[in-house]
Amino acid sequence: MSELSLSLPLSTGGPFGWLERLVETATGWFGLVIIFVYSFLIAFALPGVSEVVLLAPLDLGLPYWAKMSAIILTSGLGKAAGSVFAFHIGQEAKDSGLIIGWLRRSRFDIIEWSEKQTVKIAQKWGYLGLALALCVPGFPDTLSIYAFAVLEEDYYKFALATFFGSVGRLVLWLAGAETLVTLVEFL
Description:
7 helices; 70% helix; transmembrane helix; membrane; VTT_dom
């Protein structure tokens, strides 16, 4: 497989655009630390998409497939760790009710919509549903993580679901991007 050489519009810009640019320019083994931290933060605090990590130009002295595997696994671990942190916050919010009340009174009823969607997924598929929901490329998953965190209670299963969902998402995105690159080269 060849290096992914397309410049794709994954960055969302905004106040955290500097962090996305840091990921997109991360090199060497320290770049994996940057990817971990970015993935951790995107799980509970940052708006945007996690696929940005696939653009990191890491030079690890590894074959392409090994480099991409390292990026995907590091991002998955970072997202799982950040999700557990969000899960803890969600458990605290569930107990206090203050955040949920504030969000319900907000102009956009994000909680009602996300709760309905998440409850449907959680009731039907449980933690597998969370993993599948997190596999959707390009969709910011912070809201899903928090909504699911308020409904569930098992930290270990939550961490596994977010890890596999994150890895699945990046693998799906990378496969799609590789297919696009192949088609462009073919044409």
